[in-house]
Design a protein that fits this description.
Radius of gyration: 25 Å
Order of helices and strands: HHHHHH
Structural class: mainly alpha
Strand content: under 5%
Oligomer: single chain
CATH topology of one domain: Four Helix Bundle (Hemerythrin (Met), subunit A)
Shape: extended
């Protein structure tokens, strides 16, 4: 049962991933990418028994990142007249990069020792459970967690400072006087 569910979810996910590439309209492409992320999240939740990772994937990627992509595409005002024909060099480089990535993935899958892969962590909790994640995060990785939180705080303050419209004092030449009627 679990194997057939995995194959179904994997087929749907790969189908939507192919549709991301095949879609002519960029907005449709983004929507297919959202459905691809939902398929990946379904794998996390149902097959890998990692509901926290699945929900975070939906919130972060299918929610925030895809809304950002959609707004950027809508602001770019893409249309057929504005697009330029790309040369065949882009297709050759893309095919080479995709083939290289495929070889790396196949080699990584070939080197996996499938007998040692298990669904339980050595501490007894499930790999994707929130309890195990919280325990490891706040004991073993507390320093990197705190450093990351300070970096996020600095980034937020920097973004506010950069986005703020600074009110410069007016100089004498910029002050306009009302014209008096005589």
């Amino acid at each position: 049962m679990l194997t057939s569910a995995f194959y179904f979810i994997a087929f749907v996910t790969v189908f939507f991933a192919v549709m991301v590439i095949a879609a002519k309209n960029p907005v449709h492409s983004v929507l297919y990418l959202v459905l691809t992320f939902f398929g990946i999240s379904a794998n996390y939740i149902f097959i890998l028994d990692a509901p926290f990772v699945g929900i975070v994937n939906i919130i972060v990627y299918a929610g925030a990142i895809m809304v950002l992509f959609l707004f950027v595409i809508m602001l770019m005002n893409l249309n057929a007249e504005a697009e330029h024909r790309k040369s065949n060099a882009f297709l050759i480089v893309g095919a080479f990069a995709g083939g290289s990535l495929l070889l790396i993935v196949v080699d990584a899958i070939r080197k996996v020792d499938w007998k040692s892969v298990s669904g339980q962590e050595s501490s007894g909790g499930a790999i994707g459970s929130i309890k195990v994640l919280g325990k490891v995060l706040y004991t073993d990785y507390i320093l990197p967690f705190e450093v990351a939180s300070v970096l996020f705080l600095v980034a937020i303050v920097g973004a506010v400072i950069l986005a703020r419209k600074e009110k410069l004092p007016l100089t004498v030449g910029q002050i306009s006087h009302p014209v008096s009627e005589s």
